[in-house]
Design brief:
By secondary structure, the chain is mainly beta. The strands form eleven sheets. Strands 2, 4, 10, 19, 21, 24 and 26 form a seven-stranded mixed sheet that branches. Strands 5-20-3-1-25 form a five-stranded mixed sheet, with no helix packed on it. It has a four-stranded mixed sheet with strand order 6-7-9-8, with no helix packed on it.
């Protein structure tokens, strides 16, 4: 305890001295503008990206996928619109989970803010509030519109099965009346709104898509007109009153009434700690072998605007980029890598249990893919299909760290269990793994790590040329790893940047983590992330 008190005193003194020595020093949060905090990436992340011939022979394959918004947590968001599509009719979507998805009973979830219970499916703009004992979740959504279920194209009424292979729906409208005898129809306010119950037969084409038409009274000139609606993959056997599925390919969301004027904040320490929404990708049984893509829409309609957009409360649009998904269907017999664009080094923490994937560190891996049935996909982007055969940072650390306190290994890359080669050599990734906060690489987070970070910060602020790594390794990536493990809030994997610095906050965060551990409790590192 005495040593902890000394460290706190040292930190306070150091903060005062460094503010005098180096007034130009600043924390990551103060520098966020230079990294374009108004830029966000929409990412669609399937649970897996390969489907075998054996699976497909047994029937349609369903792959759950999540859509994330990745970027700064400093901004507030008032509305989001997302549209996505597949590049082939064999792929479609179903079973959306959005801000409005609700279950019968409470479910428990754990995030960087703590553990909470809710009947809703948590998403990235939800709100957590404490009643003094527990955290409660609020969906923070005043409006959400989706294409999960079909609507009539004129009045927006929900379409339901009429139990006879067709659809039914109910709408209200005004009829017209020629009050002046001039042939011009005006709204018949005397009669008022008319309720019309429709029951329409559906015609199904050779591809399984349905179509129906109906007449209605236009509400601009009160003339009779005809509307037609297409229904994808229509199931004529739906029971009576069942909702008719639609394309499941778009969502429009508006923040809750309590945050309409300010916009919603992201839930958790990172913008993508929770997804914006989830959807199932369906690979139909008769899908041929090959590569298929799920892409975000990037068209702009004169009537509806852009397919995808994200707005602030003052109606400014955030800059969006997109990470689409590639799914391989069928058994791959051979892969020839034709180009590689990736980072030299990939950094991970020993606490990370997710599988290492090429998309973590590669901008692009291109190759020619040959399937068992002879199908060939030439010069295809296979980045989403490349992994380390299930290896995780956690198991690498457990198996290889030993007494070093870190892992430094060239890990083989695979595509559907096929080891890849590039320029006649095994295609590998230089992977480094260490425990977050363990700056001296002794295998534990201790007071010494906090002192080391404080010393580094103080010397750096005084203008000294100083490094965090003091071991015997000559690999320059070790300094990069030490920086990443010490940077507890911005978690930079590229070292110091305009928005990522090692400062006194990091020393305090490591101290807090150690103190909690010494007291028999724990703190998630996500608690400190910005």
């Amino acid at each position: 305890m005495k040593k902890i008190g000394s460290l706190i005193t040292a930190c306070c003194l150091s903060l005062g001295m460094c503010s005098m020595l180096a007034p130009q020093s600043f924390s990551a949060s103060a520098a966020s503008d230079s990294a374009n905090p108004n830029a966000y990436t929409l990412r669609i992340v399937p649970e897996r990206t390969t489907v075998s011939s054996e699976e497909l022979a047994a029937g349609d394959v369903i792959i759950p996928a999540s859509i994330y918004i990745t970027g700064s947590t400093e901004n507030q968001v008032s509305s989001v619109k997302i549209k996505y599509n597949s590049d082939d009719s064999h792929i479609y979507f179903q079973n959306m989970k959005t801000a409005s998805t609700r279950y019968t009973d409470d479910r428990s979830y754990t995030c960087s803010a703590g553990t909470f219970q809710t009947k809703f499916e948590p998403y990235c703009f939800g709100i957590l509030a404490s009643n003094g004992k527990t955290l409660r979740y609020n969906s923070n959504c005043s409006m959400i519109a989706t294409t999960e279920y079909a609507l009539d194209p004129i009045f927006g009424a929900s379409l339901r099965s009429n139990g006879e292979g067709g659809v039914k729906f109910s709408v209200q409208y005004y009829q017209g009346v020629d009050t002046d005898g001039d042939g011009i129809l005006e709204r018949d306010t005397a009669t008022g709104l008319i309720t019309h119950e429709y029951s329409c037969p559906v015609t199904v084409d050779e591809n399984g898509n349905g179509t129906f038409s109906y007449t209605y009274i236009r509400q601009d000139n009160y003339q009779e007109d005809t509307a037609t609606k297409k229904l994808p993959r229509y199931d004529a056997s739906l029971p009576v009153d069942a909702l008719v599925p639609d394309t499941c390919d778009s969502v429009s969301w508006l923040t809750g009434t309590s945050t309409l004027s300010t916009g919603a904040a992201f839930l958790g320490a990172k913008s993508d700690e929770f997804p914006f929404m989830q959807v199932d990708i369906v690979i139909q049984q008769d899908t041929p072998d090959g590569l298929y893509h799920v892409n975000f829409g990037q068209e702009v309609s004169a009537q509806l605007g852009p397919d995808c957009s994200m707005d602030s409360s003052d109606h400014k649009k955030y800059d969006l980029s997109y990470e689409n998904a590639t799914i391989s269907v069928g058994d791959i017999s051979d892969v020839t890598v034709t180009s590689v664009e990736k980072d030299d080094t990939a950094l991970y923490t020993a606490e990370d249990t997710s599988a290492i994937k090429a998309s973590d560190f590669a901008a692009s891996i291109q190759g020619t893919v040959t399937y068992a049935d002879g199908t060939v996909a030439e010069n295809a982007d296979i980045t989403d299909l490349v992994d380390c055969k299930g290896a995780t940072p956690e198991n690498l650390y457990t198996q290889l760290a030993g007494s070093n306190g870190y892992v430094k290994s060239n890990v083989q890359l695979y595509c559907q269990d096929i080891p890849l080669k590039w320029n006649s050599e095994p295609l590998t990734q230089h992977v480094l793994v260490g425990k977050k906060g363990d700056v001296d690489f002794d295998g534990s987070v201790t007071l010494d790590d906090s002192f080391a970070v404080l010393s580094y910060y103080s010397k750096l602020a005084a203008g000294a040329d100083v490094k965090l790594y003091s071991g015997t390794e000559t690999d320059p990536a070790m300094e990069q790893l030490a920086f990443y493990l010490a940077d507890t809030d911005t978690c930079s994997k590229v070292g110091k940047t305009d928005t990522a610095v090692i400062d006194i906050d990091d020393a305090f965060n490591i101290l807090q983590y150690y103190s909690a551990f010494a007291a028999g409790s724990s703190i998630s590192w996500d608690k400190f992330a910005k």
